[in-house]
Amino acid sequence: MIVRIMGEGQVKLADAHFAELNKLDDELLEEVESGDSAGFRATLHALLAKVRELGEPLPDDALEPSELILPAPDASLEEVRQMLSDDGLIPG
Length: 92
Hints:
3 helices, 4-stranded mixed beta sheet, globular
């Protein structure tokens, strides 16, 4: 799956990594719903770091459609709240 981190670029992630990412996504969803801004910030950074670690960066000139878009590291709690679905940022 091609994942875009807003403001950074795209990475290619194997589907096998999504179970691990969903744990962080579930934490993030809980923190957004409860308004825990400190927890939200830490978990957002952990989620994005894990995507960078597990993903293979695509070249800047690659024009692949993103199947998943994640917020920028400096996104506000409210900006992320608007991006969330019932499943969080990551489906499944």
